[in-house]
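Minutes, project huddle
Topic: does the predicted pose make sense with heme C bound?
PN asked that the exact inputs be recorded in the minutes so nobody has to dig through chat later. Recorded below.
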Amino acid sequence: MKGVVPLFVGIFGTFAFSWAGLALIPSMQIGHLQPQMDEEGNDVYPAPQSGLAERGRRVYTANGCVYCHTQQVRPDYAASDIKRKWGQRRSAPRDYLFDRPVLLGRMRTGPDLANVGKRAPSDDVNAPAPDSTTAATVGASPPPPGAAAPPPAQTPPGTPGSPSAEPDPAAGATAEAGVPPGPGGAPSPAPAVAAQTAETGAGPTATTSPDNEPLEYSAAWHHRHLYDPRSVNPWSTMPSFRFLYEKRRITGEAAADALKLGGPDVAPDGWEVVPTYDARALVAYLMSLDQSHELKEVRGASPASPPAPGKAVK
Ligand code: HEC
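Predicted holo structure (tokens), as shared on screen:
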């Protein structure tokens, strides 16, 4: 009988101690995080996402993307995530302030997606993308400068091309970009044609070219990748999410966001493959993933600062 009280105090103490360590203290540390802003109250980060992107998060959750993809960049002392170009700095709790649920993930069958939106070509290329898609599908001539701009950018030159060359897994895709996706398909002349048109900047040919590939990490690229990952990365083990797309007869005008497919996936004449609302939401969500904004609590880890003097730069 005498030992009962100390026993209960001991048990209670054990639980109280672990509760404090695992719940109370972390909550005090990060439970009241607010978005960061500069002195004038501008440049708020993070900010809530659009409704479409929020819905996309649900699609992401519902389809188990989290089983194969993480959304967390680990610090450079712990892992090589930053070297892999998955981010320029490590992730921090503040990055996830508005995420419900937080989709950190723990399996990396596929690449980390914490910054996949940042990998997108660039805003001005993204915005007109659907239009140039229209031009491609309709086969109309319209704004040749806008329509012609994306394809050449993919092949050689500077600005928008360089980010696409960065991510490791994408390296394969970049190399592969010229190769028509359909392994069964014959069209070998296609890449050459595309390259020529890219050089000459000939608009109309480029838009009608069968392998008018969408720019890497653009919305059109994401759709195509989700529809058939192997059309983008022949070695991909990612399942296809075709059920998020609808194959339908073209009635009247072809849809602006109809997928540009190649090889065996090409829709028969008079048919088109269009993203469902869920697919569009999912892509909006993917393109919203961006942790590149600087955070004061991780400035030290950011490689944006010049490399450590002691370290040889190779
Ligand atoms: C069975 C595992 C698996 C599942 C489930 C999965 N993926 Fe993937 N994912 C991969 C693999 C492997 C790659 C790399 C090859 C490739 O690019 O297709 C990849 C690549 C990607 C990429 C390109 C990333 C980059 O940096 O190049 C995106 C975007 C992506 N997945 C999104 C999704 C979304 C969205 C879902 C859910 C609808 C999903 N994945 C479900 C395995 C998976």
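Observations noted during the meeting:
- Residues 124-210, 301-314 have pLDDT under 50 and may be disordered.
- Residues 71 and 302 are 18 Å apart (CA to CA).
No decisions taken; revisit at the next huddle.
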